[in-house]
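for the writeup, i need someone to sanity check this before i put it in the appendix. the sequnce is what the collaborator sent (i think, or maybe the updated version? ugh). structure was predicted straight from it, no edits. if anything looks off just tell me and ill rerun, i have time this weekend
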Amino acid sequence: MSVSDDVHTELRRKLIAGFFEPGMKLKEEHIATELGVSRTPVRTAIQRLITEGLLEAAPKRGAIVTKWRESDTEEIFQLRLLAEGQAAAWATRHVRDEDIARMEWLNNRIEEAVKTRPKGYLDQVQQHNLAFHTMFYDLCGSARLRVFGMNLLEYPLIIGGFFIYSDEDAMESIRQHQDIINALRSRNAEWARSAVTSHLCAAIERFRKTKLNTQRPPRRSVEG
């Protein structure tokens, strides 16, 4: 990897992890000093991150950390519908019995965490859910699709999807995971695509419902 690639990887990791506040300005000279490199690879890395939508161009060099809007989350979900559905369909060509067993193990761990609620269980759910969805790309047989899809999965608003689930939503998501597993076990590409699409469409609706509920003013009690 080049120095620019290293800088890009480090900055992207910090942006995805929420290390920088939205709207914060990143200056080339400060980043270069912090990472111990010249400004040229920093400038190249920043331009790549602007292209990826994680940064926005700022006057007088540098960039501003992108502020996430509802439309950004909707866009990520829509892209996941296309990418993940295709990955699941192609995964039916390569999936092995041990892969199916692994996905069932992950889904069972999610269900166990949701039902028993151990300390830090949401982190466990998030970790296992990410691993479950990553398997579509690991099994799809396309390096290009894997890179594209994994970039979408890294966004915190998507990774943290279980944090806006009710218990009922979480159990329904687990059931949908099982439907995906059944489709992969049958090696039925269209069923796999449909199962993943239905699963993500439900996630979109859940996100919309949650945002709508948080935007509504509190109801006032009426005394008769």
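The longest helix spans residues 189-215. The chain has two domains: 3-65, 70-215.
thx in advance!!
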